[in-house]
Design brief:
The complex is a heterodimer of chains A (338) and B (631). By secondary structure, chain A is of the alpha+beta class. Chain A has 6 helices and 13 strands. In chain A, strands 1-9-10-13 form a 4-stranded mixed sheet. The termini of chain B are far apart. Among the domains of chain B are: 101 residues, Orthogonal Bundle (DNA polymerase, domain 1); 155 residues, Aldehyde oxidase/xanthine dehydrogenase, molybdopterin binding domain (Aldehyde Oxidoreductase, domain 4, 2-Layer Sandwich), CATH 3.30.365. Classes of the chains: A alpha+beta (338), B alpha+beta (631).
Chain lengths: 338, 631
């Protein structure tokens, strides 16, 4: 095998993205109850599409209520039973619904704390709760959240909260497009390392370094999962995925024709999570769902150029396209020499 | 049709059933035994969601006739652990966050279990090879690999079982790696997606789809289909009780084709029948007469004067044009030492969520029309459906079923209207499960794009002006095109402060499969062009690619392309982190790959040759693979 058959290179791409609905006001509502047994109940129109939002919301509610995430129940989205929290998209659920759940839970806690502070005859500001326990700072006063709820209810009060969170985007001017489409922005940068087989045109992506600002990582492992999934979808679009039609009829009917990344295509993905807190929301978190895949394809194309000096400007960079580009490059070189 | 008597052992229990002879093992498990943890993702053996063990061997149950499994020992995801318990593989999936939407996960757990049964010492390369027949669209596989390696080591006794437990938490749950609350239900196959749900007295719906990209519907004759035994109703656009039309930004799409069809795969009529086979037979009995119309298949053709008109309201075939203007572009190019001009394009992309579209509708005792579906936006769907079926909002109820992947592709209400109308006509629950082929032709794709780009820069790498124009094929219906064009325009020139720019993004109607929402919503198409241009400029100016980006990057106080002043901006920190993490060797991007010193580090994987990863059979090879991985 020729020493120059397989060539490696690296490329980078930077990116940016806006959080929540674009060029409009966005809103989300939630209800919260600190329930019997020191458990939590959250009702909101959230849509778990796989990103882990239910777990994120349970962490947020648990932290605000002073209980464990496992003890939080989140009702499924049901338009006749849940307050509106709008859609699963636009990288908005952690930002919009997360803050809404935080505020609703905080309100429920405040109701509970008022009753317990009165019951113990202490300043409400001295109360703390975490992981199922409630206590007054600098005292021996302590009880389980289960007892706290029972005490609160025995006094005739159900600890409830509700909240609506708003993100203030504005529309774009129809002539010059000016406007403030989002109140929170995130930035990302990815580096790709590739190996190009110049005989077959095949590209293997061997490494990705992905650094993304998420504001505040509620669940770092979940953030990594979003980055890894986004990178691999970006890789698919960069190298193989291609929905094709001929005169309106698809020629890629199934997964035998529509090629997707499998376990053998996966680079080592090295994630770096940056936390630049959002100053406009109580949680300070932003989002990661969509931004994760923006820089992947251009980073890979820049890496291919670094390796073999051909620039693919038309996705995907299939082996056929790479070989054609190499032939064109060599023909141009010969012409130069001639 | 005479029935077939099947006996086999399933999850340790003898089962004996009379069933239809055409059933696949997958159908027998799901429909006859209610073992719905085994999913149908493609029906063609290509995705692996239906993986089960037959006599100890991993098979794709969609490819095996049920009769072939007669007398065999079958294991499904439900049989992996005792009820309420999880195997080490399942616990490891829970621990690492290896399940996201969860639809591929039962099959993935079966494949991982098979890998470790075949070779308990399998190295990471062999594990990857053995998972190669199972597609996951959410996770990027990385956490799955981690889970299988942890499970391997726990089973072998090399790691204590405590590694599978939750990490301890100090004084806050914010920032903690809390294990996913929904993972146990996903790794065990217990979670019911819409296609897994059954209701008493439920009908099955099937949809007749357009074979033409653009045609006038002359007539639809449903008489023969309606007369068939077992058919409960046949519906067409004539059965829509209210004001028809849905879409994310413009309500230009009818529940079923009205007057004409605009793309191949568009719904024309639907049948609800006692069972799937009857519904499919009834579809074949519907007679539709079409008069073909000239079609438009490229956005360039759609904009030509005199082009065929696809929607009456849009005589110019324009879905949306978004302009963004800032500064003085001509003056900016005057200042430039270097002007680069080029063209870029991206393709249509399929979401390929592993769960095909599915749903159930019924009318409840209070006359509320209820739709259960894995939709990304049921709040908006109920507004649109209320108009379509002419009901007040509180008489329309949407319940979200677990979503087996969406990525934007489940924002469009492409089938819920048919289900609701069928339920209203029959007052029986109706279920519709798409096949993979149906999902691919009927659902929206990522917008393909063509970008013409002109960038001016000073010799110091400062961008002085950009002209950016994107033309995109919106396909037959508007769906999310308007929003996608808006986001593409807003983000177009990337995270750089550009004082003079002229940006135009345009989506047009054609007779291709519609384009719609897809993760990044136009952001990646635009920034692919920008980031390619940045590297081309860096090479021309002999600058490091990080350096040219730092010269131009947005900072606090910068004005975005839409002239919004930024009060936070983290790109500097993010680029520093990426540069450091990757051990980036500084230099211009001038094909220096072969000379680089930062390649092949410990944070890359080794390249592979297909089939070269099985290092012999048995423990020796496996240990070798494992050692290589450690080294």
């Amino acid at each position: 095998m020729s020493a120059t058959r397989k060539l490696r290179g690296r490329g980078i791409a930077a990116s940016w993205y806006g959080i929540a609905r674009t060029a409009t006001i966005d809103r989300a509502g939630a209800w919260a109850e600190i329930d019997d047994g020191g458990t939590g109940k959250i009702v909101t129109g959230v849509t778990e599409i796989g990103e882990g939002i239910l777990t994120v919301l349970a962490q947020i509610a648990a932290d605000e209520m002073g209980i464990k995430p496992d003890d939080v129940t989140i009702g499924d989205n049901d338009t006749a039973r849940s307050p509106e929290a709008a859609h699963a998209g636009a990288t908005r659920q952690t930002y919009m619904i997360g803050n809404s759940v935080a505020l609703a839970s905080r309100q429920a806690r405040s109701v509970l704390f008022d009753e317990i502070a009165d019951f113990w005859d202490v300043e409400v500001g001295t109360l703390k709760a975490f992981d199922g326990e409630l206590w007054a700072a600098n005292t021996n006063l302590k009880m389980s959240m289960s007892d706290a709820v029972a005490t609160c209810k025995a006094r005739g009060v159900v600890p409830l909260g509700s909240a609506s969170f708003t993100a203030h985007g504005t529309g774009l001017d129809p002539v010059d497009g000016s406007g403030s489409p989002w109140q929170a922005y995130v930035f990302g940068t990815q580096i790709a390392e590739v190996e190009v087989d110049t005989y077959t045109g095949e590209i293997q992506v061997l490494g990705i370094w992905a650094a993304h600002d998420v504001g505040r990582a509620i669940n770092p492992r979940g953030v990594e999962g979003q980055i890894e999934g986004g990178v691999v979808q970006g890789l698919g679009q960069a190298l193989m995925e291609d929905y094709r039609t001929e005169n309106g009829h698809t020629t890629t009917h199934g997964f035998a024709k529509y090629i997707l990344p499998t376990s053998l295509d996966i680079p080592q993905i090295n994630c770096t999570i940056i936390e630049d807190p959002d100053p406009l929301s109580p949680l300070q978190a932003k989002g990661i769902g969509e931004p994760a895949l923006v820089p992947t394809a251009p980073a890979i194309m820049n890496a291919i150029y670094d390796a073999i000096g051909v620039r693919i400007k038309s996705l995907p960079a299939t082996p056929e396209k790479i070989l054609q580009a190499l032939r064109d490059r060599d023909a141009a070189k010969r012409k130069e020499i001639a | 049709m005479p029935k077939l008597k099947l006996e086999m052992e399933v999850n340790g229990r003898k089962v004996s059933r009379e069933t239809e002879p055409y059933k696949r093992l997958l159908d027998f498990l799901r429909d006859d035994l209610n073992l719905t943890g085994t999913k149908e993702g493609c029906g063609a053996g290509e995705c692996g969601t239906c993986s089960v063990f037959v006599d100890g061997k991993l098979v794709k149950s969609c490819l095996m006739p049920a009769a072939k499994a007669a007398g065999a020992t079958v294991e499904t995801i439900e049989g992996m652990a005792k009820p309420g318990d999880l195997t080490p593989v399942q616990k490891a999936f829970h621990k690492t966050g290896a399940s996201q939407c969860g639809y591929c996960i039962p099959g993935m757990v079966m494949a991982a279990t098979s890998a470790l049964r075949e070779n308990p010492g399998a190295g990471i390369e062999e594990i990857k090879e053995r998972l190669g027949g199972n597609i996951c669209r959410c996770t990027g596989y990385t956490k799955i690999f981690e889970a299988v390696e942890i499970a391997r080591d726990v089973i072998a006794g090399d790691l204590p079982e405590t590694v599978l437990e939750e990490d301890a938490v100090q004084d806050t749950y914010i920032g903690a790696n809390v294990r996913r609350l929904d993972a146990p239900s996903k790794v065990s196959g217990r979670l019911k997606y819409a296609a897994d749900m059954k209701m008493h007295d439920m009908l099955q719906m099937q949809v007749l789809r357009s074979p033409h990209p653009h045609a006038r519907i002359v007539s639809i004759d449903t008489c023969a289909a309606e007369a068939m035994e077992g058919v409960a109703c046949v519906i067409t656009s004539d059965d829509v009780p209210g004001k028809d039309g849905y879409g994310v930004f413009v309500h230009d799409q009818p529940t079923m084709a009205t007057g004409k069809v605009r793309y191949v795969g568009e719904a024309v009529a639907a049948v609800a029948a006692e069972d799937l086979v009857t519904a499919r037979r009834a579809l074949a009995a519907i007679k539709v007469e079409y008069e073909e119309l000239p079609g438009l298949f490229t956005p360039q053709d759609a904009l030509k004067p005199g082009a065929p008109v696809i929607h009456d309201y849009a005589q110019d075939n324009l879905v949306k044009h978004i302009p963004v203007r800032k500064g003085d572009v001509a003056a900016g190019f005057e200042e430039a030492d270097l002007i680069l001009e080029d063209d870029f394009s991206t393709q249509q992309v399929e979401h390929a969520y592993l769960e095909p579209e599915a749903g159930i509708a019924y009318v409840d005792p209070d006359d509320v029309v209820v739709v259960i579906s894995p939709s990304q936006n049921i709040t908006h769907h109920r507004h649109m459906l209320a108009e379509i079926i002419d009901k007040p909002i509180n008489k329309v109820r949407f319940i979200m079923s677990p979503v087996g992947g969406g990525f934007g592709g489940k924002e469009d209400m492409i089938y819920q209207g048919m289900l609701a109308i069928g339920a209203m006509k029959t007052h029986r629950p109706i279920q519709l499960n798409f096949t993979r082929e149906e999902s691919i032709i009927a659902s929206a794709k990522r917008h393909p794009s063509k970008v013409h780009y002109k960038m001016g820069l000073t010799n110091a790498g400062r961008i002085t002006a950009i002209e950016f124009s994107m033309l995109s094929d919106g396909g037959a219906y508007g769906m999310s095109s308007e929003g996608v064009m808006r986001k593409a325009a807003i983000l177009s020139c990337g995270p750089y402060e550009v004082h003079n720019l002229k940006v135009d993004t345009t989506a047009v109607y054609t007779n291709n499969t519609p384009s719609g929402a897809f993760r990044t919503f136009g952001g990646m198409q635009a920034q692919f062009a920008t980031e390619s241009m940045m590297d081309m400029a860096a090479e021309a100016l002999n600058m490091d690619p990080f350096e040219i980006r730092r010269v131009n990057m947005m900072k606090i106080g910068s004005r975005t392309h839409t002239q919004q002043e930024l009060t936070t901006a983290s790109l500097g920190r993010v680029m520093d982190a990426a540069q450091e993490a990757s051990r980036w060797e500084t230099g211009a991007p001038n094909v220096r790959g072969p000379l680089r010193g930062d390649l092949n580090g410990p944070d890359t994987r080794q390249p592979c040759t297909l089939g070269a990863r099985f290092q012999g059979d048995g423990l020796d090879g496996g240990d070798k693979g494992k050692k290589e991985n450690v080294a």
